[in-house]
């Protein structure tokens, strides 16, 4: 195991960054305490620093030879490998990294070591603790020919890998790197166990190199862009960092005078001091007019409804390409008469002058049919009081009670008045409604039907057939009426009883309005 002195040396190496770590970690002057010499280039390839995160202990990564690892057998010494939370600083994260050296003779195999050249291996099959990991004191060259010190990575799904020891157990079973005993605490030991599919055997490997999303922009022909001076690098475990020293390989000025695509490449410096490639792609071309957009309405639909449903963006063309860009648009409805939707046909609406470019909205006005809005999608209901959970006022059955407001306590506790409300996901035009209480308690004496306007207020439905509240003089209730068309975000029914000796019920509520026929 490493001593405190070696730990300090390792951190000193870490401050040099990833590129330096690869070159320096194997110098004899650093690793001589472990008898580690420069690896023979014919045996091992260049190492990749990896943070190896456990799926079953998320947020924690394997460290090799950390003296703070939990004691384990034999002799209650610190485990050769254990998990610890992601560090916060660049040097501490670098110090956590496992160096994965590819074995040149078998590139699918890797030797895992820490920055001091301490190699991670599984104990031999003749050892009674053969499942346990060890730091056997092998040099990197020796590990390159020892199957117990070599590992493979295979896909475990979801971005995770199985890490398998090349040396199988004496039984022939494959030894997977395993989060021992399903432990998750910092310092918990890592061992091996028979290969399976449990989360304790799944690991995500993270490279210490940032990725930067390419910049994608459009520029007008003849106008060179200002290349970005601030970009964010992202690491696969979630760390983000602003790149330093961003430098671009700027092209010649004449590339911006020709329509097309220009790619500019450059570099920045990441969190660990590593060089990070960056790229910016520019579509060079001037904006033109917009392609036509279309929508469908129905006969009798109000202009207000059309305006609310009209698209708010269009696609503008770009010279020299088939590419379009999304642009906001405002439509000029001023030329349309109030009865523009009275008959089937096509309406054209131009973009307002304030939009700054030409665009056209084509609206096809199709035949309409009257429908029961409450049986469609996007309807939500509420009430003042409901007995239990029996609410079936929109099932199309007019003569079976679908709502009642019984409440214990007799006449003193009757709910009077009671209200049933329906809310619409989007404004709808209402032209009438119906309320029924057939086969129920026969106790509805008064009814008021209201619509909810665009700002949330409740207003009596405008009808000349009756005054509100409607007085029901019959045992059952069958109220049907037409209304002056209104644009509504909801409808509600307010009912009062004939007598406190009984509770009230309803069997069906309907709200009528136009919709596209068919």
TrEMBL record:
<keyword id="KW-0732">Signal</keyword>
<dbReference type="InterPro" id="IPR006311">
    <property type="entry name" value="TAT_signal"/>
</dbReference>
<dbReference type="InterPro" id="IPR035992">
    <property type="entry name" value="Ricin_B-like_lectins"/>
</dbReference>
<feature type="signal peptide">
    <location>
        <begin position="1"/>
        <end position="33"/>
    </location>
</feature>
<protein>
    <submittedName>
        <fullName>Uncharacterized protein</fullName>
    </submittedName>
</protein>
